[in-house]
Amino acid sequence: MRGAGCSINDLWDRNLDPKVARTRLRPIARGALTPFQAFTWTGVQLLAGLGILLQFPPICLYYGIPSLALVATYPLAKRVTYYPQFVLGLTFSWGAMMGFPALGVDLLAPDAGAIRAAAALLYTSNIAWTVLYDMIYAHMDIRDDAKAGIKSIALKHEAETKKVLTGLAVVQIGLLAGAGIATGAGPAFFIGSCGGAALTLGYMIKKVNLKSVKNCWWWFVNGCWITGGTISLGLGADYLIQYLADDSKPENTEAKAEDL
User: Fold this and answer.
1) What is the DSSP string of 12-39?
2) Pair 134, 88: CB distance under 8 Å
3) CA 74/CA 19 separation, integer angstroms
4) Which tens digits make up the pLDDT trace of 151-185?
5) Do 90 and 131 touch, CB atoms closer than 8 A?
6) So what's the pLDDT on residue 200?
7) Would you call 185 helix, strand, or coil by DSSP?
8) TM segments (predicted)?
9) Domains in the chain, please, with CATH?
């Protein structure tokens, strides 16, 4: 689906990409693919995504299909607002919502209040994170975007980018911690995931050279893996600790003995 989103983006931007140095050699922009060929390939990608979606519980269809509206309209945002990264965040972060119905949890059920809160907090945390790293990405094209009339958060807040990045990091980590509280996460999550995210994001924001296209690209590609890896490790450690603690409870031990 990420690939389909990129294809749709390139279709919408086929007349803008030639005006930006970094994107002028994209397949449609340079004429290597016709719009019809790109449209056909997008259809193949969407069908592949549907095939995967059908492997999950049927309820996932009701949550997954509406996200296509976001995938299709994101590229238009840069034409009307300086905050297309926010729309990108809405799109890229949808997986945070999909995880719950994939486990058979209906977020719209009357008794799903706490889980619904956790999903909303996780989703909005990911939106803040997407805006953060895509703001760094936008700095690579800031001069060409201004000439081409392409709007971005980097153009709007060029003079105070690092302050904005810091604010986004605080929001992301705060919302992530809120999701942990809503789900009863333990210390490993708050120390590993939230604390680790604070350290890695803080280091990235301090070190990234927004005037260097090469440096912005490095942090955009690697920064999300570093922070994402840290968050994942914290989540994994917390899950393992809680699993082992639950497994060692007397009632669970007795139940296993009876099964044997």
Assistant:
1) HTTTTGGGSTTTTTSTTTTTSS-HHHHH
2) yes
3) 19
4) 999 999 999 999 999 999 999 999 999 999 999 99
5) no
6) 97
7) coil
8) 44-65, 86-108, 114-133, 164-182, 188-205, 217-241
9) 1-55 (no CATH), 77-259 (1.20.120.1780)
